[in-house]
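name: query_chain
kind: protein
chains: 1
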Amino acid sequence: MPRIILHCDLNNFYASVECLRDPALKNMPLIVAGDPENRHGVVLAKNDIAKAAGIKTGDTVWEARQKIPGLVAVKPQFDRYMHFSKKAKEIYNRYTPLVEPFGADECWLDYTGCEEQEVRKNEELGIRNTDVVSASASSRPAEQERRMNGVVREQKPESTQPIVGADALIGSHLTNNVRPGGPHGSAAPTGNSVNYPSDIPHSSLLISHSISSAASFAYAKEAADEIRAALKNELGLTASVGVSFNKIFAKLGSDLKKPDATTVISPENFKSVVWPLPVGELFMVGRKTAEKLIKCNIRNIGDLATADETVLKEKFGIVGVKLKNAAAGFDDEPVREAVSSHQNKSYGHGMTAKRDICDLADLSALVYYLSDRIAARLRHGDVRGFGIAIDLRSNELRHVAKQCTLPEAVCSSNEIAAAATDLAKTLWNGSPPLRTVTVSVFDLIHGGFGQASMFDTSLGGKKKADSLDLAVEKIRRKYGATSILRADLIERDFIYDKTDDEDFLPFQR
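structure:
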């Protein structure tokens, strides 16, 4: 049996949250954008009115204002967005513990096996599974509310979103004693380490083969509709949900109908739904890759699925083979359960300065500022790092980067800044002017000083540096972030003193 994967995408998430804060914005062209005065004036999100005017994510605020009069721009409030993001995940967890975030507004849910619980509940209530399949879009009586994980799910009103290819879906059935080689019955690719979806251990062991493919997708479609209703009723947000047998097609499904819709892409209908789409619509195919594929006369996803593997490997390497398998429906990537805490592999801090950096003194000051912020986070995580990296981005939007490994792990701001500044000097001599600087610490260890050298005489100095940083942090915690600063930072007018909330990562987990 195929897996059942849902992809939930909150519609116009940032802009929708802003409209909840101020309902008057709902009927205005709205964008959520950074602060142009601090050179962060890029569109992060827009509502449907702004989208219809041609405004795109990544446009500058100036460009956006040229496209429609009366445009309203609001600064992002990431703490508010994360609050709603967490609330949405709580709703998803009512249906399955396997929820994988993909940014603040998107999540994959592995619903495989959950529909079997639905069957058991229905059997207890005397409802035939075939009745559920034939009436999957109908609401159930109130006394038939289902309980999963101890949470009662409200029954939705009659759905207005039909299942894509419902006729083919309802009539399908996979036998128990014959497993096809792939989702559409063809032999699975060989030699590429690609497994049929039911080979995934955590999925195939959960689901009973007594449930037909049609019933599985019917229950999943109903669950998706319930999720959308809960998001709307409890949070005031709408979502588009894709239901499919792998993560890539589920995400594609959530993009096909917007806003507030459910799209089912099953093993029975995916060729008619997915394959006619432009190849650039496939997840993992970026603009440049799409252009290269089109030059090879691969224009839609079906062309990619049936393309010659040898040619793809010659043109794109192993990536070409992976793209072909994805287009053909052979994606066994599991949904990874999110955890409240995770082990960081590195700590970094970057900043786009208010003005271009044109000399080494300004660069050194900014590097220290960034190193100071990183050091505080390292102390909070009780970690040190052996590796230091710096990334410099010029006002021509070109990058240069370099990293080094230190003989001993560090966590003090002075040591991080010293190593990062030395790297910067080897990359940049004052030209071209710099726009963005990022410092990172990697190769981490928890606590201690790493492997101490028996000839080292600087251990006492390291402890003093750590103690000094800790004392400064305590003063700032009590009296404010600007209560104590290095003298060379006081008159620097290019440093944008942003909060940690503004260090929001689009793909934060």
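note: Confidence is low (pLDDT under 50) at residues 132-210, 449-457, 499-509.
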